[in-house]
Amino acid sequence: MIRICIIIFALHGLTCAQGTGQIEPDPSVQAALGRLTNAKVSAVSFYEAVLELKTLRFKLGERQVFEQALYHDAVVDRRAEPKAIELLVWQLFKCNDRMARIIAMRHWDSPDADIRNLARKVVLKQHRDTLYRSDFLVGSLWSARKDPPMELVEHVTGGDPGAIIQKFAGRSDEDEPPVDPAQARADWLGERIIDDAHWRLERTYDCPVHVAAAVRELDRFSRSPHWWARLYTAEMLRRHESFRRKDIVERLRKDENKMVAEWVDRPYYHGMMPEEFQEWKKSMPGMPDRPK
């Protein structure tokens, strides 16, 4: 307790030395925060607001977007619990708790009483388990009946295709029947078999037995009733030509989920953005869109 107080007052002194400024509301950020806090999690507008705020975060900086959320909750929304901060910082962007508190500390002595009170509440907020921060959004995507934006799926999984299976397999909610534990274990093991074959191919090992085992698992995933399992299959087929068995590709091209159907033929950019890949490819004549 003494250590916590020392840290708080040390930050307080640093903040006072820098001065405290007013938060000027940014119309674009405030509009996106309004859509985020007022939309149902199942609504398309909710996902659109998340992606818009993610873009604004990179454009304006984490501090600016967090301060706008602080202003929104304290001045605009005025709920008993700070919903914009709760969604934006601890669940959607998985912001570092310490960083959030340091930013809030800058407004510990804000001349606006509402902002001052909320800032102090954030600073003193009990630490959360970091593993919980994305659990809310994973659960929302898991139960989605319509196509969620691909950018949001990538955000939740951190760009790791295997995370789709590791995070989603074995989940259930009130609207779904209980998941068969044996099926979940088979999915987790299947992902590891595919990942092992992919690792060997990336390092140019001759591994026909491992590739054959991986393709059998990909064929099974491609027939799954869950969009996220079929999306994982499409992503892995993008990653290496050896996985692209013709019947699996054709099955996914006809998938009822538009995201899956389009994803299977999207070029693989070796971890780069499309524009970066095209620039890089100019210096690498003959470089394919995906490994052979």
Helix and strand arrangement:
Layout lengths: L1 H17 L8 H12 L5 H17 L1 H16 L5 H10 L4 H9 L7 H11 L11 H8 L7 H8 L3 H8 L12 H22 L5 H15 L4 H13 L6 H8 L4 H6 L10 H9 L10
Helix pairs in contact: 2-3, 2-4, 3-4, 4-5, 4-7, 6-7, 10-13, 11-12, 12-13
Short characterization:
With 292 residues, the chain is mainly α.
What does this structure look like?
It contains 16 helices and no strands. With 292 residues, the protein is mostly helical. The longest helix has 22 residues, at 181-202. The chain starts with a helix and ends in a 10-residue tail after the last helix. Mean pLDDT is 75; it is low at 1-20 and 126-134.
Q: Which oligomeric state applies?
A: single chain
What is the helix content?
55-70%
Percent range for β-strand residues: under 5%
Low-confidence stretches: 1-20, 126-134
Topology as H/E string?
A: HHHHHHHHHHHHHHHH
Largest sheet: none
Kindly give the count of domains.
2
Span between N and C termini?
A: 58 Å
Radius of gyration: 23 Å
Number of E strands: 0
Characteristic terms for this protein:
292 residues; mainly alpha; 16 helices; 0% strand
